[in-house]
Amino acid sequence: MTEKPTLLILAAGMGSRYGGIKQLDEFGPNGETIIDYSLYDAIKAGFGRIVFIVRKDIKEAARELFEPKLAGRIEVDFALQELDSFVPKELGAVERSKPWGTAHAVLCAKDHIKTPFAVINADDFYGYDAFEKSAHFLSTNPDPNTHAVVGYRLENTLSDFGTVSRGVCEANAQGELVDINERTKVGRENGSIYYQDNEGNKVELAPSTPVSMNFWAFKPTIFDQSLKLFEAYARENMNSPKAEFFIPIVVSHITANGPGKVKVFESDAKWFGVTYQEDKPVVKESLRKLIAEGKYPEKLWA
């Protein structure tokens, strides 16, 4: 029997634009976090284990919040993303306050995960479809160097309260990722969607453009590949306190240089999440609608 995949939840972010610990904020009718809905979908889809990546200062709060709900339902583990994790020792003390980024967060789970696994953000709602497709892929695709990403339609991923960053995906005829580019300051203007390039120019994007919302499906080979790349990245960026080692850096490297390929699974689900405090009422209303439609029970863990 194939071992059930693991779900890795990235919950160590700072939430600077939100103004608080959005990973632990309450959105559901009974105080549920956004993570609760991801956990519910993951268990339903067939994941067998949960690993949270957290900062040291929120580890106990996260443990107290999630362990009682998940007891008897699924195995839970916690890993820490620390500023000096996997930084080559000869580089000395790390002088930065900002975490090293999403690919570094994944790397920090290296000693906690031995199975194929999916990666999600703690503060994004993805919909059941993404968990089902990823669990099926991770349980049935034996190639250790074939990974996957869930691509959402760009128009379904924007905030009404400010611009966002999105990983714009380009796939080939076989449905495999050819390129992924992080586009910043993405937002609507006069009925169209634009991002801002490095020169400050506005570039239009089609509403149907597939974008990554950081829902990835990886085989464990990704850890050693990430480690080599991060050590080189840390050497180059020790004096850049805002530099971040993002997942697309790793993915772009393995798709361009091997070994590895990344399948793109498209989802028509309406993503929602909290980038800004103003997003909170929208998320609450979206969850209320899904509960009214019967997608989720009103009391998630009853």
From TrEMBL:
Q: What positions belong to coiled-coil segments?
A: none
Print the keywords alphabetically. Answer: Transferase
Q: Name one Pfam family in it.
A: NTP_transferase
GO terms for MF: transferase activity
InterPro entries (alphabetical): NTP_transferase_dom, Nucleotide-diphossugar_trans
- Give residue ranges for domain Nucleotidyl transferase: 8-239
Q: What's the protein called, per UniProt?
A: Nucleotidyltransferase-like protein
User: Which lineage do the record's taxonomy fields give for this organism?
Assistant: Bacteria, Pseudomonadati, Bacteroidota, Sphingobacteriia, Sphingobacteriales
